[in-house]
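Here's what a typical entry looks like (Rhodanese-related sulfurtransferase):
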Amino acid sequence: MKSEKEGITQWDYEELQKHLHDEHLVFIDVREPDEYEEGHIPGVPLMPMGEVPERLTDMDSEKTHVFICRSGGRSQRVAQYAKENGFNRVINFDGGMLSFEGEKNTGEEKRIDQTSELYSK
């Protein structure tokens, strides 16, 4: 189900599942590396919340970004920050990984850096 909180679109687990393989969306896990390594959504890259401000200007603000964290709080703040900085299409995974019922990968899979596809505008 979709909803809205403080001007940010919220997706629950079912809504996330519907769109998880949509190549037009950019999914980003904003947790810390140790949390990500304990279990993350397969294929979703890591960009810790603290690195978002320095990387945001290199990201494509025309794409829709879906932010994910442990419970939905940090990802909500990242979505708000992105919106305040010109990203009009941002979504928060409300409930975060605590509500994620699907398959999870462990270990470091994919970390966003300047060579990542997010940076191709």
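The beta strands are 2-5, 8-11, 25-29, 64-68, 90-93.

More examples are in the samples folder.
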